[in-house]
Structures are given as structure tokens and as C-alpha cells.
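Holo model, zinc ion. Inputs:
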Amino acid sequence: MDALLVVDVQNDFCPGGALAVPDGDQVVPVINRLAGLFEVVLHTQDWHPAGHHSFASSHEGKKPYDVIQMDYGTQVLWPDHCIQGTTGSRFHSELNVTPSQLVLRKGFRREIDSYSAFFENDHKTVTGLSGYLQNRGISKLYVTGLAADFCVKWTVLDAIKEGFHVNVVEDAVRGIDLDGSLEQAWQEMLGAGARKISSETLLHRK
Ligand code: VGL
Ligand code: ZN
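Output:
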């Protein structure tokens, strides 16, 4: 069985949001069209407490997009975003979340960021998604959402490590693109064994 995984299509990652991904909102109609084709639709939601350690504002003298060393490795510092319960943390108002069978929240531990839907950024702390998918007999994922070069990328790489077949729907993702990170993300995802598919091809195949 396969599933559509929709990563972090939240107001703060869309134009006007705190950490806007260029054209991030353009994935919404594409994802809504795809959602009707899948028996299983799952969403992730970036869900940080105020004062989260991935925020530049939590570190004296640091600005957004600076990079620091955390216990678990390098961490890009972000503008405050997706704070639990705020408008910015809500799903884009036109995203159809009704078909969702699971909304997986991540990034709720103050000290540790979580890009991937499978593991937090220490690459050890699990979210439980792998077991959930395995228990439901889901072996193939179609991944969509934001941002292609952060949460989508790490979700895809971990999904492959966990043994899932992964397709990335190319016109249903958009990237932040810090210093070529978008191109690099595609190389890493494809190099790890992910396939790239267009929503058009997927619509015809389903
Ligand atoms: C994301 C940066 C910080 C994402 C989340 O959803 O890609 N990026 N938090
Ligand atoms: Zn975040």
C-alpha cells in the first residue's frame, strides 16, 4: 500500500509567513488534487514551543540563517516560526486536511530541531512514524510539501533508510534555497534512491 505524505504546508512557510518558502503556497492546489487519489493521506506539522533552540532569537548575538553547533551537529538558525497554536503554525487555509488520517507534529522539544518526519535532528529520537507506517502495511510514500531542501529532504532520506520506497512529487514541493541547498537536496534525494515524479504522471497512473 502507498500513502501521500504532506510535509509542513503551514502559513509560516507560505508567502507572508515568518519563514516563507518562495511560491510555497503553489503546492496547495497540486496537493489537494493528489489527496483525492490516495487511500492514505498523512500530514506533518512543524510545531515549536516559544524559545525553541532552532530560533536565532534564542541565541545571543545570532541572526536568522546563521549556523551554529548544537550537541547533535550543525544547526541553521531560523526566524521564529510555527509556534504552537499561532496562526503561522496552522495549515494553509486552502489546504484540504480533511482526508488526513494522521497529523504528525514535530519539533516540539525545545532543545532539538526536527526536520525529518521520522527522526529528530539528533538522528536518534524517533517520531514513531516508521512503526506507524509499517504497522499499517504501507511501503511506498509519495512525498509533497515544504521545504524541499529541509523537512522534505530529511524526511525522504530517512524514509529510504527505514526501507520505504519514496517518490517525490516535483511540482508539489518548493525549497528555501540557502546557498544552492535546493539543487543539493535533489542530488541527495535522487542519489539515495528516491524517484522524482510529476503530479501529472501520478494523476494518470492512479
Ligand atoms: C522547516 C526550517 C525550519 C521545513 C522547518 O519545514 O522545511 N525548515 N523548520
Ligand atoms: Zn521548524
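The pocket of pyrazine-2-carboxylic acid (ligand 1) is lined by residues 8, 13, 46, 78, 115, 146-147, 150-151 (CB under 6 Å). The first helix runs from residue 27 to 35.
Archived with the compound record.
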